[in-house]
Amino acid sequence: MKQYKKKVWLTGLFIAVTVICYAQNGNAGIDAANNEVRGYFNSGTNLMYAIGAILGLIGAIKVYQKWNNGDPDTSKVASAWFGSCVFLVVVATVIRSFFGI
């Protein structure tokens, strides 16, 4: 039993020393991930602008259909669609300015 504990202890010590010797600095990986994520921000904000434009067109068509049908809640639907488009544009702009891109 004593030999088994000694082998387990030596194996654990060997693994710990190996990990400590071959471990790399984590800062390089964090910096690489940071640069990669920042590289996607311009594409992401452009995508959000495009989604806002598509939603604006869909909303305009829906509001136009309601207006032609004479529905009384046309202004409520128009404000909801307009608010969602403004929200997307504001969020994209705030994210871009928050991260300094």
Automatic annotation (TrEMBL):
Q: Which residues cross the membrane?
A: 47-65, 77-99
Q: Which InterPro entries match?
A: DUF4134
Write one Pfam family the protein is assigned to.
Answer: DUF4134
- Name the UniProt key words of this record, in alphabetical order: Membrane, Signal, Transmembrane, Transmembrane helix
Which superkingdom does the taxonomy of this entry point to? Bacteria
Signal peptide stretch: 1-23
Descriptive protein name: Uncharacterized protein
Organism source for this protein? Pedobacter insulae
